[in-house]
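ok new one. same drill as before - structure tokens go in, u give me an amino acid for every spot. 586 of them this time. try not to just spam alanines like last time pls lmao
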């Protein structure tokens, strides 16, 4: 169970069972909090939102498209003619939505969306980190006390357990269950961390695709056994059949030419990065098979199908108690990593998402006759391939890729130079590298060098590297207000990703468009730059119909998603960093 989430709910939520309501893409400069947005929206607790009369819909669906850049709705919009086209035409589209925190990754992104709180509050700073008290590596949803629960007969003994134990704030699902215990909350994704962190520890069902058994599973943290409807889905053969056919384009090849050529050597499959893509290989181990299938629309087809099964399996929207379905599309991220935002593959993914979302909306229309709401957003964006960005018209000629071997060598030199300056006989060891460096400072401190001095010296040397735009020490991240923001423009956002017992000793930031510590192909995310932090937020359905087709350019944040869902559901919001967006619809 996430530490202290029930206490975090506080008295702000209503007593059990009683429902009420309280309520630019394209620049690399940091976004400041605009006058129309309360500073609390990104820096502290949100002020109370005025009450609005609203009947809660029978079902609210939160759709998180993993790695969906905000500009995709514009760049690819001329190809949409179904679900994505419909939600833009009939919903409310917030065109200046951003992520308020600095380390833009899957785990903190989903936790932020679900809790309405920045990582500095909910505790999930990255996908992986070093636990400072134990000095042990940690994965955002690891739980050694838990066990994977698969279909009958599956061998899950060697697979690590999963749970939201690292999450320190309650999710929107917990808010709903506290206010209405009879309501149901179900979370589904291809990735374990996406499903688990959206759900928190109050969900009725949490399911993801486990590569070790090639089936959808859950954890003993949530249930002792899979429900029959998931067991049936696992046993029907759909998962065995997934990927049997290669991935082909849904449209004629010429429809994709506006983004560039199909074959790009810097894409994830190198010279083989062209359609069609085989999704199976007899030589693939389970992990490789997970990524091969995952980096295609086929993986999210599975999650969509399981979400549709959940409507009947859990009776979602079947009674007067509003329910919540949380669905994350992990395939979008894996396609993005492999092929980048200028690829035929990413365009085809969104063409197919447009169609699959249309299918989902038609089924929801059939079942609920408009008595449902949908919220679409993303956990982060993604960078262009540097090789493409530096070559194309209007791109960044300075964009570069710093592969892992070069990164390790140059960072090692910088740490060695800092160690000499500090009078140490040996270079300071590095415990781990993620979106920052965790250092082993025990020997330095034993020799009389304060940890803060060691970190400052290492950060200073790292700033001399051509691929480091800035390096922020632990002490700077812990107290970003003491540094002149105009001199260190990204420090405040990175400070919202700081957690004292988890954060790195040094947080690195490369120049805009650069990829650091990366593979030789594909792309990544993780920075506060616009391409990683600007994402869509679209509201659709019940509670939104009066604002159909509205395009809103006020700056908003992903921390606003959970409070907005709370307002749609008619429940109170505890003290969080975001606020409801429904007043923008008036």
């Amino acid at each position: 169970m996430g530490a202290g989430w029930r206490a975090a709910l506080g008295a702000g939520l209503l007593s059990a069972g009683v429902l009420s309501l309280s309520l630019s893409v394209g620049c690399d400069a940091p976004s400041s909090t605009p006058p129309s947005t309360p500073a609390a929206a990104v820096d502290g607790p949100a002020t109370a939102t005025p009450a609005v009369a609203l009947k809660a819909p029978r079902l609210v669906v939160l759709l998180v498209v993993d790695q969906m850049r905000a500009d995709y709705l514009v760049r690819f919009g001329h190809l949409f003619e179904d679900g994505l086209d419909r939600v833009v035409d009939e919903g409310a589209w917030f065109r200046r939505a951003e992520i308020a925190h600095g380390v833009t990754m899957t785990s903190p992104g989903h936790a932020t969306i679900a809790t309405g709180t920045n990582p500095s509050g909910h505790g999930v700073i990255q996908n992986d980190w070093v636990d400072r008290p134990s000095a042990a590596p940690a994965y955002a949803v690891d739980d050694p006390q838990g066990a994977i629960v698969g279909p009958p007969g599956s061998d899950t003994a060697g697979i690590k357990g999963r749970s939201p134990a690292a999450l320190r704030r309650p999710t929107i699902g917990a808010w709903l269950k506290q206010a209405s215990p009879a309501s149901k909350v179900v979370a589904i994704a291809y990735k374990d961390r996406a499903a688990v962190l959206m759900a928190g520890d109050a969900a009725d069902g949490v399911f993801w695709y486990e590569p070790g058994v090639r089936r959808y599973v859950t954890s003993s943290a949530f249930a002792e056994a899979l429900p029959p409807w998931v067991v049936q889905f696992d046993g029907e053969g759909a998962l065995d059949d997934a990927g049997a056919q290669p991935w082909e384009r849904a449209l004629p090849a010429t429809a994709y030419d506006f983004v560039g050529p199909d074959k790009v050597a810097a894409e994830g499959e190198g010279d083989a990065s062209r359609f069609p893509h085989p999704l199976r290989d007899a030589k693939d181990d389970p992990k490789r098979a997970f990524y091969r299938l995952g980096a295609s629309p086929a993986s999210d087809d599975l999650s969509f199908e399981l979400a549709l099964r959940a409507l009947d399996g859990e009776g979602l929207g079947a009674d007067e108690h509003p329910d919540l379905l949380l669905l994350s599309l992990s395939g979008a991220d894996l396609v993005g990593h492999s092929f980048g935002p200028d690829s035929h593959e990413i365009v085809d993914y969104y063409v197919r998402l447009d169609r699959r979302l249309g299918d989902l909306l038609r089924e929801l229309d059939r079942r609920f006759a408009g008595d449902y709401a949908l919220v679409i957003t993303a956990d982060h964006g993604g960078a262009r391939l540097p090789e493409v960005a530096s070559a194309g018209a209007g791109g960044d000629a300075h964009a570069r890729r710093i592969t892992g071997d070069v990164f390790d060598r140059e960072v090692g030199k910088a740490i060695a130079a800092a160690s000499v300056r500090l009078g140490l006989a040996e270079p300071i060891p590095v415990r781990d590298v993620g979106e920052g460096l965790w250092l082993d400072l025990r020997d330095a401190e034993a020799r009389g060098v304060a940890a803060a001095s060691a970190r400052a010296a290492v950060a200073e040397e790292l700033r001399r590297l051509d691929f480091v735009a800035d390096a922020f020490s632990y002490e700077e991240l812990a107290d970003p207000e003491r540094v002149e923001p105009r001199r260190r423009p990204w420090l405040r956002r990175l400070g919202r990703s700081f957690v004292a017992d988890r954060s790195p000793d040094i947080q690195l930031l490369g120049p805009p468009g650069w990829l650091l510590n990366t593979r030789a192909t594909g792309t990544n995310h993780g920075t506060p730059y616009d391409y990683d932090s600007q994402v869509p937020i679209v509201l659709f359905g019940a509670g939104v119909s009066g604002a159909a087709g509205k395009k809103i350019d006020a700056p908003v944040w992903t921390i606003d998603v959970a409070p907005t869902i709370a307002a749609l559901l008619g429940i109170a919001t505890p003290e969080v960093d975001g606020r409801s967006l429904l007043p923008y619809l008036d």
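Residues 89 and 549 are 5 Å apart (CA to CA). and btw Residues 344-368 form the longest helix (25 residues).
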